[in-house]
Amino acid sequence: MIELVLRTVAGHWAPLVWLAGFAIALAIALLIRKLGRKKFREGTEQTLAFFSGNLAPEQNIASRNLYWGFFDQMRGYFELLKRIHTGIVNDYVFCFVLLLIVLLAAAAIGGLLWV
User: Fold this and answer.
1) Residue 14: CB partners within 8 Å, gap ≥ 6?
2) For residues 62, 66, 71 and 73, what is the CA-based torsion angle, rounded to 10 degrees?
């Protein structure tokens, strides 16, 4: 008899169960799609982007205008990032290793204090 379960060191995996789950999820998605409105028409105003009830601009909106408020409020943070950015990979690896050492030291000290 053919065994339908793949047994590994970490457990087992039944591909037919996964296929059945995928088929059920697909059936549910298709059912939800079928319950949608039938009035949708291609090439009408329904396919246009929604700009809060305003007419859509003729040109694309640049991201600097779209996210202006976010970048304006975060200006101090971005200026700091520009100052410390060197573009040299060694600097970033050094910072990563330093952060890793600090985190490991904090975990070790926390472990010692826990005991």
Assistant:
1) 4, 5, 6
2) 160
pTM over cut 0.90: no
Fill in the amino acid letter for 5.
Answer: V
The amino acid sitting at 106 is: A
Q: Cα separation of 115 and 113, whole Å?
A: 5
Residue 113's alpha-carbon distances to 108, 109, 110, in angstroms, are 9, 6, 5
N residues, the chain: 115
- Give the 3-state secondary structure of residue 106: helix
Q: Which residue has the tokens 């950015």?
A: 85
Chain segment 94-112, per-residue pLDDT in tens: 999 999 999 999 999 988 8
